[in-house]
Amino acid sequence: MGQRPHGRLIQVSIDVRPTPRPRIIGQAERGLDEQLEGTMLLARPAPGDVKIDGNENPVGPGPRVLEGLLGMFDEAGRYPFNSDPSQSDVSSAVAEHVDGTPEHITLGGGSSEVLRSAVRLFVGPDRPLVTSGLSYGSVITAAERFGYPWRAVPLDAELKLDLGAMAEAARGAGMVYICNPNNPTATLHPGTAMERCIDRVHATSPETVIVVDEAYHEYVTDPAHRTMIPHAMERRNVVVTRTFSKAYGLAGLRLGYGVGHPETVAPLRQHQLSANANVLVMGAALAALQDPQHVERERERNAEVRQNTVRFFERAGFRVPESQANFLFVDIGRPASAFRAACAERNVLVARDFPPMEKTHCRISLGTIDEMRRACEVFAAVLGVEAPAGALQ
Amino acid sequence: MNARAKQTSISRRRFVTTLGAGAAFISARGHEAWASAVLGGRTTEPFSRWQTSQINLSSNENPLGPGQHVLDAMRDILGPEGAGAARYMFAQQDETIAAIARAHGVAQDNVRIGAGSSEILRVAADVFTGSDRPIVSPHPTFESAASYVALLGREVRRVPLDRDFRSDLDAMIDASEGAGLVIHCNPNNPTATVHSAASTRDFIERVHRRSPETTILVDEAYHHYVTDREYESAIPIAVEDPLVVVARTFSKAYGMAGLRVGFAVGHPDTIARLAEWRGMDMSTNLPARVGVVATLQRGGGPIVQEQARNTGVREFTRTFFRDAGYEDTDSQANFILVDIRRPADEFRSACLEQGVRIGQGSPLYPNHARITIGTQAEMDRATDVFAAILG
Questions:
Q1: Cα–Cα separations (whole angstroms), residue A65 to A68, B49, B139, B257, B289
Q2: Interstrand relation of B368-372 and B181-185 (parallel, antiparallel or unpaired)
Q3: Where are the beta strands (DSSP E) in chain B?
Q4: A17, A43 contact by CB (below 8 A)
């Protein structure tokens, strides 16, 4: 199987929406390899590089989590269902964390595995996937792999998911994928908008499952944000995915989870490919859930860096959609590829292209404040602007 | 930390108070056995603790774990404060595949890794079967591939083992016509029996003749525990033959079951088909990948040692049962399947009551118990329990 052609990726425009109806994108046109977060697309850092390309937590999981992780070293030879603590302890702890029961939870090797299982289970040859024209691409990759059709709904003019158009496109769909906050745009829809969308899909297409990806939930500071987990536990057609890869600082350890109604989650669990939650991440996750202050501190740390970095770009004359995550999607007004290469030469690694916006926008993850000071100096030099005084405090 | 890691598992998996043999045949399993232990005042532990505080002979794990050098390498990559955990693991991807390829004398494009061989089996099952291309699987065997195919609503052809508890290769060949995938689990789980290199080679050729488009997956999870000299790995066949793929795991002899790494070896075209499944290279974790490199760097010596250790304890355990008059299959793995001439479920519950968790064999052999080979110390204790229960 050779490489699929890229290039004519998403043929949607975010500026012009001549018709409120979403365009249906043929499934054979494109491979979304580069849409998938991670894999070979993350640059291999050299020592001293500022690595802000993977939406990773730059400070790590913290000492208590590390201790929990190391405590599992003597369980390395045991399967996750035999170890002490075991996978069922993790399910229970996650359940408690979201005010549910273990029957509401499925664990996966990252939330990607849960998303893959969801596509396998909910989407089909005559039940397409509905996603956005610019969102986390894992679900499209999975749909293509299984030969299932999918529809990508263009973003709205503010670079936000067009929830109205997505709900409309959901008629007859197997699954609607809503990443909130959305990757790579970092934009958020408030709880009321999400609920309206869910209600609308349920009214017009009761068989469609809405999968809400809350990978960046822990980074949100907007008080209008609400998790959809309570709806997921109550309604058969809503599933929420979460991950320990972002604010919890455990991307390399691979743990995510799905939350839903027990009748929805049971088959999802069966579709998992393996006992993927390894014993190390289980110890780490249990410790992390017992230390909620760590995530709160990480949210505050990130919010401060975010505010500073946004101020830098705005003072330098570049627009940034409001970010509620640990990255920015900056309108640099020029192709991301040249910008990325120039930054890389100066040891700052920013993210890959995000078609169809790769000619104007670049995704920049938020490192530590020191890393962002260095990065912003490089950005100023590469973009040919004066470094705005006092932007990064 | 190192001291902790070195702590033997025996003390933690301590016995609950031993019951008298008379109380042995209580039909209790899992929660019921625990409830009975609580009511009898034999434990105050919550179920999950109780469940893991026993001699665990249920899952064919290596009781010694991966070894200190693996733990050291994993500790290293995490960094002093653990910040390494926060990074996606892709920088380590190539090293791990390169190390596996080197250790097995194959090229990197012959190798694909996944979260244990289970993930390899399930992905292969999905890729190679279809609505009109069933899976052929020995029965009983490790069910991961067949059960997934069933879950996908596709046809599963289960072929009963022969009278020696081995895959019935002739019957498998008959069943292979038009199949997408044939599973050859060698040694087979839960029967621990093996087919020779010559039989495997002949089997592959005959499946090709009978059904030229059928892929054969040779599951060699227990490869390192085989002592039969007639046996050989099918890896040399797999790298040449696009219709053969071998699954291996670090969960058994390498002692890394909790770390979740397995791999497939095959022709580059076959591996490329598995590789289309993008999730697979995302599912292994950073310390595990580094641990794999560390364990392979030590060469074959430690694995030969582990094989010898297992063979010795296996022989001890088999002798115990044979001396007591119970027949077992010809085990070529780190577990045995023994005919205890009474319901294995009841025996299992009785053992559980006394702090020894044995495995589940197969409903097809209701009087056979599957018992993992633990350490010698564990088997000393376990055989005492077996003797008491079996009378």
A1: 5, 21, 43, 21, 20
A2: unpaired
A3: 55-57, 111-114, 135-139, 156-160, 181-185, 215-219, 244-249, 262-266, 335-339, 356-358, 368-372
A4: no
Domain with CATH 3.40.640.10 in chain A: 72-291
What fold is seen in the domain B68-297?
Aspartate Aminotransferase; domain 2 (3.40.640)
Instruction: Classify strands B244-249 and B215-219 as parallel, antiparallel or unpaired.
Output: parallel
CA–CA gap between residue A217 and residue A299 (Å, rounded): 10
Cis peptide before A292 (omega within 30 of 0): no
Whole-angstrom Cα Rg for chain A? 20
Q: What does the alpha-carbon distance between residue A200 and residue A266 come to, in Å, rounded to a whole number?
A: 25
Question: What is the reported pLDDT for A101?
Answer: 97
Residue linked to tokens 């996908």? B152
What burial class does residue B70 get, using C-beta atoms within 10 Å of its C-beta: 0-12 exposed, 13-18 middle, 19+ buried?
A: buried
Q: Could you give the CA distance from residue A221 to residue A178 in angstroms, rounded to a whole number?
A: 19
pLDDT tens column, A364-374 = 999 999 999 99
Under the banding of pLDDT at 50, 70 and 90, the label for residue A27 is very low
Highest CATH level, class, for A72-291: alpha beta
B89 neighbourhood in chain A, CB within 8 Å:
251-252
**β-strands A361-365, B55-57 pairing:** unpaired
pLDDT at A392: 81
Give CATH for domain B2-60+301-390: 3.90.1150.10
CA dihedral angle for residue B15, residue B19, residue B24, residue B29, rounded to 10 degrees: -50
Q: Quick one: A33-55+293-383 is in which CATH superfamily?
A: Aspartate Aminotransferase, domain 1 (3.90.1150.10)
In chain A, CATH 3.90.1150.10 covers 33-55+293-383
**Residue B236, C-beta contacts closer than 8 angstroms, at least 6 positions apart:** none
Confidence of residue A393 (pLDDT cuts 50, 70, 90): confident
Distance from CA of A308 to the nearest CA of B (A): 23
Q: Using an 8 Å Cβ cutoff, are A283 and A71 in contact?
A: yes
Q: Write the CB contacts of B214 (distance below 8 Å, at least 6 apart in sequence).
A: B136, B176, B178, B179, B180, B181, B182, B207, B208, B243
Of A138, A270, A279, the CB nearest to B258: A279
At residue A266, the pLDDT reads 96
Mean pLDDT, all residues of chain B: 89
B33 phi, psi to nearest 5 deg: -65, -40
A292 at B interface, C-beta within 8 A: no
Residues 6+ apart with CB under 8 A from B195: B166, B167, B169, B184, B186, B203, B231
- Tokens of residue B313, six digits: 């304890």
Domain borders along chain B are: 2-60+301-390, 68-297
Which residues 22-51 of B are in CB contact (within 8 Å) with A? 48-49, 51
pLDDT tens by residue, A267-320: 999 998 876 789 999 999 999 999 999 999 999 999 999 999 999 999 999 999
SS3 of A177, please?
A: strand
> Which member of A70, A252, A279 has the closest CB to residue B286?
A252
Say whether residue A280 is in contact with chain B using an 8 A CB cutoff.
yes
